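Changelog note: in this version the structure field was regenerated for every chain. One regenerated record is shown below for reference.
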Amino acid sequence: MSDRQIQADFWLNDYMTPWDMYAHGITRYLTSQKTNYQQMDIVETGLYGRALVLDGKWQSCTGDEFLYHEPLVHPPLICHGNPRSVLILGGGEGATLREVLRWKTVEEAVMVDLDEAVVEACRKHLPEMAAGVFEDPRVTVHIDNAINFLDTTSRQWDIIISDLSEPVEYGPSFPLFTREYFQKMAKLLQPDGCLVVQAGSTSPVRLDFHAKIANTIAQIFPNIQSYSSSVPSFGEPWGFILASAEPIPSRPDPKEVDRLLAEKTTGGFRMLDGSTLLGLFQIPIYLREAIAAETGIYTLSDPPKEVGQGILKDSPTSNP
């Protein structure tokens, strides 16, 4: 199937809610494989380049992945200022590692991913994502369950990046979005360390997951910052939660951020600089209000189950 030429009228329907989808025009399958954990497809699209799709859900693509990976990685490293050790949970494409290794201060980066088949397929079919960083001597890759890794290490880190896909009902990633595992991550951080979590959509119609993740993390960390980035191929803005025991400036000085990036990174950014970071942290009213109003938290006994249902999931059915 990987060699078959597919016409432009072949569509990948990525459902964001039961009522909304983004239909991506696919021109070619590069690989299609049922791994030990999930269905993996790497496809070529008519507009956004090559993309990774897991269990039918769009993950990232070469056309706009920088709009996800730069805001995921650099805000916590900027807030820390001098990161030397970084732990990445997930991130099989290698793009998160790529961004981490822009920092000249980083001495060690460890990536923990469950699915070796996905990591190897991305290295083969999406080499521009990693840009050769798997060969960097600072990098160690563990093929392991992130839960097992966290439960069996006592090593402390300057930065922990949770780059896991959205949890599905009782799937393998749901425990890592709970209070118990955020507590575990907090214990594995240096006192001045930072945690960042990919935290789902911040679309007005389905931000309940993001708001509840923010409230869950706020039970553990005294300082959190919600922010989001517009990722066109996702069809909606995507959210992140930054957390630390240290204060997080909600209005970072653009000139100081630019100075830090010029001094401590190799550059090459396509999205993020001081002005961008300042803008990212100024979240809109609807998002601030949703986070402030949220009272629930995710726990191992009450984990996230149905991400992506939208705000109508609990509404009574009405007849026209």
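Spot check on this record: DSSP finds ten helices and twelve strands in the chain. The first helix runs from residue 66 to 80.
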